[in-house]
Amino acid sequence: MQGGGDRTHRAPRAAAILGLAGTVPFILAAAMVWVEKDVAEIGRWIVVALTYGAVVLSFAGGVRWGAALDTRFGRRRQARQFTLAALPAAAGWASLLLPPLPGVGLLIAGLLLAGLWDALDTQSGRLPRWYGALRGLLTGLSLAALLSILARLVLTDAP
């Protein structure tokens, strides 16, 4: 996603397109919770956001699991990395079991922490630089949409 001639700093086109497309369900749900007047429909869009967020956190955990395959890790550190890699999916699943307000809050925390973890691994060289830039953009868009949904939940009588 960064400029310059060095292709190692630019996200592969497919990753950028698919990543940006992956933010659409969050953005659509955020728009719909503000546009809809019917409380049941607002609730449905919140469920859409929660469900999709659980999927995204599972994907983020999968990236972490893949990074833990690094054979430079000692067995003990690798075991810790595999264990931590399961946390995003667990947070996503838990968000589905909670009422909407804390569920959306948990998704926001989970996406933020997963994004920060990826940023740290990008800075350390364990993940490609382009991934950190792309991940930052995607996380920012997703968090903005979820914060909008959270605001709708807090500021109105939405479910």
Automatic annotation (TrEMBL):
Q: Which organism is it from?
A: Kaustia mangrovi
- Tell me the protein's name: DUF3429 domain-containing protein
Q: Name one Pfam family in it.
A: DUF3429
Instruction: Give TM regions.
Output: 12-33, 45-67, 104-120, 132-155
Q: Which keywords does the record carry?
A: Membrane, Transmembrane, Transmembrane helix
UniProt keyword Methyltransferase present: no
- Asked if the keyword Plastid belongs to this entry, the reply reads no
